[in-house]
Amino acid sequence: LVLFGVPTEIEIRSGNPFSEIVREIQAGGFDLVILGAPLPGRDRHVSLTRVVDGVMKNAGDCSVLIVRSHT
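The chain above was modelled as a monomer; its predicted structure follows.
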């Protein structure tokens, strides 16, 4: 993203992932948050985890982009 002039930040925290991500969204005034989706299960179905689902529901006006993993 830096190559395209898009400012980025990386945060490493401990604690409950959902709470920490939502707290950062609320404090940071971000336009976009990018989250990784879990890998597909044995049935090749991707189900969103509680963290991703919870962040999507509590992101307020911040857009959330979910990036799918490839195996």
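The chain is about 30% helix and 15% strand.
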